[in-house]
Design brief:
Layout (H helix, E strand, L loop, with lengths): L1 H10 L1 H20 L16 H12 L6 E7 L7 H16 L3 E6 H4 L11 E8 L3 H15 L6 E6 L1 H35 L2 H28 L6 H29 L4 H28 L7 H32 L20 H12 L1 H16 L7 E2 L11 H12 L8 E6 L4 H12 L4 E9 L2 E8 L6 H12 L8 E5 H35 L3 H26 L4 H4 L6 E2 H31 L4 H28 L7 H33 L8 H10 L4 H5 L18
Parallel strand pairs: 5-10
Antiparallel strand pairs: 1-3, 1-4, 2-3, 6-8, 6-9, 7-8
Helix pairs in contact: 1-10, 1-11, 2-8, 2-11, 6-7, 7-8, 7-21, 8-9, 8-11, 9-10, 9-11, 9-21, 10-11, 10-17, 10-20, 12-13, 12-21, 12-22, 13-18, 13-22, 17-18, 17-20, 18-20, 18-22, 20-21, 20-22, 21-22
């Protein structure tokens, strides 16, 4: 089927390119509207107790405070005449703003919790109105208007929404910086890898197509459901990376066949038949890993499934249509603009990789054992991993939101930003309300309790000096949730600590299902690809080893604080959502390289090569390709290390490290060692499954060999060559 498709592409190359151009223009037009459809939230489980409490407070109690203005008296105290006049006027202006509600000012209430212990700072709190996107927009306008030097006082903004505004702003800046770093370096590496300006341009073209196509997809999906704006980050990184991977595979195979003397038509057909089949299976495994994110209730994570599956499908489609069509028209001109010293057009085989595989297979235990020990050592920090959710600490020290947060924690007896809210479902009498407030205030860590009434129930706000991310604060929320409500009424507990606990539970409770789906789909896809039950199990084991080692290093860096001075971040628990995302992306991409290598090994094995010959020949033909693709993709992810948001740094460095570990250590050493230990058993499957694969498996041995097979014996680039 792929051979016939390759023939069609060759004969209708100009038509397909024209249609692809029109589709790309349409995607670009639609994609421009994607940014207006995407949301800034999605970090909470909509069915969680903390979310339900927040919704009730917003609807029945004037809104939960999410913006704090820290007012500092330039001289004297906040009770002085000048500071009082300025603070009162500020609170009056804020209360009149239609984008806020529930404004509470120290100068209105004179509550001790709203004034610092040295009496030089006071607070004004407010609830910013709107949905996730509107709240960010409104908060940005409010901060620009009210965070200022106002003569007698200086005003700084803090709280949840100020943190969100700062994080979103820094994410956009960091993304632009990362792209400015990654794209030129990637282009240079592509030119060096291909040795030709024309050949190097093809992967970048596919990457751009994948990105624009996915933007259009996000516009459509964002019109139907909530999609996080952070999906843009994944789209650009993965679109560029997969575009490079798939185009690199196709161009390398095409040039390899031209170097063997195959004419352009047969080279296009053979490239689509062999490399095209590899791309289809690779895309299937990557898409399956990312689709598992759909099981989580947080639309932040589901958004990465929308973007990830879309960018994989579009990158694979573009690669299988646009690249062969361009190759058909270019023919031998694919080597145009060749660098003087380049020998890249001689083929893709790298004898050094074949020799490495041969050396490993002669002493598999001796070579593999130190690598396994090293990876286990790198993974060992996972034994003490802790998880959290994004807050102001992901920003660099010294930012306005961090300064306000630190001031609240250090100088106020009760932290308004980290208070715990309890909503009672139903009204109780005054005595029952007072009794519950007393019992709530008697819990360890609670410094003060205030109450508010509404027709549908009562709200209790418990101020605490505990760090909202601490174990003690989480134990306090557990105690509050176990505390009988006023007159036995049901209660809902919210606030930052409750959100953290509910989010971790929402992810942890679905994580086994997500991992199970990833493992199951990987087993199915690789079985259909290889006809073996052992190969998928071997792939799952080795890929898990590389990923856990990379995540372990991230724990050592970002949780334990090593390299914090160099990378300029504050050590904190691993971001739960980003860690899950990193696992899914790294797993999918490692399966990408698994399919690249296994396809060549299987091709040789099916043609009668011994296990050793198949592995050494397969690695000789794919080692350079996989290492080049991994280096290019790692550059894209490592560029996020320049971000000013710690969870973006963690995500980029973790993905890049996982890719390099997989491409160099796993593909180069552990796979040959495992294949040597397994021998022919590597291709075993129970008889019923073997018969099923013979009938339904998605393999096409005749297409794999193609017209280049007659030239194989003439190729001396590798220990065992492939067409």
């Amino acid at each position: 089927m792929l051979g016939r498709f390759g023939d069609l592409v060759y004969r209708r190359a100009k038509l397909l390119l024209a249609l692809s151009g029109l589709a790309l223009v349409l995607a670009a037009v639609l994609g421009l509207g994607a940014f207006g459809k995407l949301e800034s939230g999605g970090f909470q489980d909509p069915s969680a107790q903390s979310t339900r409490a927040q919704n009730l407070i917003n609807s029945d109690f004037g809104g939960q405070s999410n913006l704090i203005l820290l007012v500092h008296a330039r001289t004297g105290t906040v009770d002085g005449a000048a500071a009082t006049a300025a603070g009162s006027e500020l609170a009056k202006e804020l209360a009149a703003n239609p984008t806020v509600s529930n404004v509470v000012s120290y100068w209105q209430t004179h509550a001790p919790a709203l004034r610092s212990t040295d009496q030089t700072d006071a607070l004004i709190t407010a609830h910013v109105l709107g949905n996730d996107k509107q709240v960010v927009t409104n908060s940005k306008q409010l901060i620009n208007e009210y965070a200022r030097d106002d003569g007698a006082v200086t005003i700084q903004a803090g709280g949840t929404e100020a943190a969100n505004v700062a994080i979103n702003t820094q994410v956009n800046t960091s993304l632009a910086t990362a792209e400015a770093i990654a794209v030129p370096i990637t282009a240079l590496l592509l030119i060096l890898a291909f040795g030709s300006l024309v050949a190097a341009a093809l992967p970048l073209a596919i990457g751009l197509t994948a990105i624009l196509g996915t933007f259009a997809e996000l516009f459509v999906i964002g019109s139907l459901t909530d999609v996080s704006v952070f999906a843009i980050n994944l789209t650009t990184a993965l679109g560029l990376g997969l575009g490079i991977d798939y185009a690199l595979l196709l161009v390398a195979r095409f040039r390899e066949q031209l170097a063997q003397g195959v004419d352009v038509h047969d080279a296009v057909v053979g490239t689509v038949s062999t490399a095209g089949r590899t791309i289809l299976f690779s895309a299937g495994t990557v898409a399956a890993a990312l689709a598992s994110l759909l099981v989580f209730p947080l639309y932040f994570l589901r958004s990465f499934a929308y973007a990830g599956v879309g960018v994989v499908a579009i990158a694979a489609t573009a690669a299988l249509v646009i690249v062969p069509a361009l190759l058909a028209l270019l023919g031998h001109r694919v080597n145009a603009g060749k660098l003087p010293w380049s020998k890249a057009d001689r083929g893709s085989a790298a004898p050094a990789w074949g020799r490495l595989a041969g050396a490993v297979m002669r002493r598999p235990v001796l070579t593999a054992a130190p690598i396994v020990a090293l990876l286990l050592l790198l993974a060992s920090p996972l034994l003490h991993v802790a998880f959290g959710t994004p807050d102001q600490d992901v920003l660099r020290p010294g930012t306005q939101v961090r300064v306000v947060s630190d001031t609240l924690a250090d100088d106020f007896t009760g932290n308004q930003a980290t208070s715990i809210q309890v909503v009672s479902l139903g009204r109780a009498g005054d005595a029952a309300t007072a009794d519950y407030a007393r019992r709530l205030g008697a819990l360890p860590g609670v410094s003060a309790v205030s109450t508010a009434l509404a027709p549908a129930g009562e709200e209790f706000t418990a101020l605490t000096t505990l760090n909202s991310r601490s174990t003690a604060a989480q134990e306090l929320v557990t105690q509050i949730r176990a505390l009988p409500g006023p007159a036995g009424a049901a209660t809902l507990t919210g606030g930052d600590t409750a959100v953290l606990m509910d989010t971790k539970h929402a992810i942890a409770s679905r994580l086994p299902l997500a991992i199970g789906l990833v493992a199951l789909t990987t087993l199915i896809v690789l079985f259909l690809f290889t006809g073996s039950l052992i190969q998928p199990l071997r792939a799952l084991l080795l890929n898990s080893l590389s990923i856990t080692s990379a995540i372990g290093v991230m724990v050592w860096i970002f949780q334990d604080g090593h390299l914090s001075g160099l990378l300029d971040f504050t050590p904190r628990p691993m971001d739960t959502s980003m860690t899950v995302l990193m696992f899914c992306i790294a797993f999918g991409l490692s399966m990408d390289y698994e399919v690249f290598l296994t396809s060549r090994i299987k091709e040789l094995h099916d043609r009668g090569a011994t296990p050793t010959e198949a592995v050494t020949g397969g690695l000789a033909r794919t080692g350079r390709l996989v290492s080049t693709a991994a280096a290019l993709l790692a550059v894209t992810f490592f560029a996020f290390g320049s971000a000013s948001i710690s969870f973006l740094q963690m995500f980029g460095l973790g993905c890049g490290l996982a890719i390099l570990i997989d491409a160099l250590l796993v593909r180069g050493i552990l796979v040959p060692a495992a294949m040597r230990a397994l021998g022919e058993r590597a291709w075993w499957a129970p008889a019923p499954l073997r018969r099923f694969h013979d009938r339904f498996g998605l393999s096409d041995a005749s297409a794999e060999i193609t017209t280049a097979s007659t030239h194989d014996r003439q190729d001396s680039d590798g220990p065992v060559s492939v067409g």
